[in-house]
Amino acid sequence: MVLRKPIITVLGHVDHGKTTLLDSIRGTSVTAKEPGAITQHIGATEISIDLVKKISGRLLAKYGFNLAIPGLLFIDTPGHEAFTNLRRRGGSIADLAILVVDCMQGIQPQTKEAIDILRVYKTPFIIAMNKIDLIQGWNSGSGSFSLNLANQHPKVAEALDRKTYELVGELHSLGFSTERFDRVSDFTKQISIIPCSAKTGEGIPEILLFLSGLSQKFLEGQLRTEVSGSGKGTILEVKEEKGLGKTIDVILYDGSIKLKDKIVLAGRNGIIETQVKALLEPTPLGKNAKEKFVSVSEASAATGIKISAPGLEDALAGSPVLVEADGNERETVAREIGAIRIETEIEGAIVKADTLGSLEALIKLLGEKKVPIRRANVGEVSRNDVMLAIAVSKSRPLDGVIFAFNVKVRQDAEEEAESKGIKIFSSNVVYRIIEEYAEWKSGEEKRQKEEARGNALIPFKAKVLPNCIFHNSKPAVVGVRVIAGIMKPKMAVANNGKKIGTIEQLQDKGKNLKEASAGMEVAASISGAVCGRNLNENDELYSWLSESRIERINAACDLLSDEERKLIEEIKKKMPFPTGEGER
Questions:
Q1: For 250-282, how does the pLDDT look when each residue is reduced to its tens digit (9 = 90+)?
Q2: Of 221, 233, 420, 542, which is most buried with the most CB atoms under 10 A?
Q3: Is residue 521 within 8 Å of residue 480, measured between CB atoms?
């Protein structure tokens, strides 16, 4: 058993500097001009531990880290899409993550999304508080933040502290205890914030040191691997390579893989079993070679390797890759994939994504939002998906929707969805999908409540105004003041416990109204009523509540205000029949 390199990924909001930080880490390493200090892998970059020690220098002794790991393996593609593909049963193969936060902007929507994903996968992380060079008056200098901090004007240092504690506060509201790395009292309870500038390279020594030190201190058991054991990895990307056809870029996190090994992985149409035809690594840095890759006979964890083999056309990014050993690999892969893909009888949403990793993350995040799922799978949105959503929407309109992450919606599916009113939430950013759904659902719930409230026909109470009888009958036209509730045309009218007629029209200054609410004075024409017989000045009028009206009002009771409920109880007492009886 040996210690392998910890696998590290970079996440954060768009434009907060994820790619620039990775470039800065690689750039810092390259400028050290030490042979073997930096090695390019497929989809990853290795920084040797000797280089970390050289760059971090005096910081190493200060924080007392005893480094024995062979180095750090950074995943070259930043972002949560790559992170979610670094998956294995029960979690992520990423041992640590760097969460990049722009110190001028703080926590943003994609930052929250990254935090949610890190929380779901239980991945420890440090925070790179980037762009400190933008703090007014900041004096950029040495690569070490710790050394450079002493050269700052006290007011500038105070400004940095304000930015740091604004971030500490934001993260506290999200349930995390954080502190600037040099003020952390307990690394098991507090997450380290490392101020840095990806642009100037400040803070890179601290980032490398703390990634190495925390890996060494808390992840040693996790990093122990059997070099000669059967390889285990995950597909980071599926790529077409000239002269090779479809290949898979694999991050190997355990054991070894050799030429002609049999491997098992997941494809769009089932389990793929094939044999390694070629293992490829990038051409070493600094070599001006015509070929992008060089062939190797073997690779050991932790590393990134390109695999060429027959039958990889349908390979799925995010799938496990297992070197055949005991013959149970097919069942292992099938069981793992079966735990992600969903096909149930639950009345819920349809979820489609481009990779298994993205699908798994989206399912977990939707689960946290209590969104039920009927079907979840990898691939384009088809007409069949829409038909299933239509079936769901008949009984559960708010759940008969489709979530499409980074996948196409086929034209026939789009047309069918549009014609049947099925919502498709489509984006290549997870938080936008969930955010748009939440906004839509909130709007739909409000609309449904308003519709239900409208169907309940809120009753009214009104008073006939003195000297405002304009027409005695057929219909009677009188001036009224609405005391409570809402008066509308076609509503039945009661007076002294008896139904006297139906409102035909409401007018104000000759203009027809759809309704009149409390406080309004309007002219009401009432068919069936006769002034001087069942309608007089100063009479108190109210809605006639039939049995069907009472049922509708009861169904919408929780949507009514206290005043409206009070009015309904008052009117019920005036009814000449017990509640639940009478005309419909």
A1: 999 999 999 999 999 999 889 999 999 999 999
A2: 233
A3: yes
Query: What's the topology of domain 2-225?
Result: Rossmann fold (3.40.50)
Helix count and strand count (H, E) for the chain: 16, 35
**CA–CA separation, 459 and 552 (whole Å):** 12
What is the Cα–Cα distance from 59 to 62, expressed in whole angstroms? 5
Kindly tell me the burial class for residue 427, based on how many C-beta atoms sit within 10 Å of its own C-beta (0-12, 13-18, 19 or more): middle
Instruction: Find out whether 411 and 382 touch, Cβ atoms under 8 Å.
Output: no
Which part of the chain is CATH 2.40.30.10? Answer: 232-336, 460-574
Kindly report, as residue ranges, where domains of CATH 3.40.50.10050 are found in the chain: 342-454
What is the value of pTM for the model shown? 0.76
Q: Give the whole-angstrom CA distance, residue 52 versus residue 50.
A: 5
For 373-406, write each residue's pLDDT tens digit.
999 999 999 999 999 999 999 999 999 999 999 9
pLDDT digits (tens, 9 = 90+) for 117-170: 899 889 999 999 999 999 999 998 778 899 899 889 999 999 999 999 999 999
Residue 556 confidence (pLDDT) above 80: no
Q: Is 229 exposed, middle or buried (0-12, 13-18, 19+ CB in 10 A)?
A: middle
Matching residue, tokens 């790559």:
82
Give residue 237's pLDDT band: very low, low, confident or very high (50, 70, 90).
Answer: very high
Label the pairing between strands 125-130 and 96-102.
parallel
- What CA–CA distance (Å, rounded) separates 574 from 572? 5
Top-tier CATH class for 460-574 = mainly beta
CATH code for the structural domain at 342-454: 3.40.50.10050
Per-residue HEC secondary structure of 188-211 comes to CCCEEEEECCCCCCCCHHHHHHHH
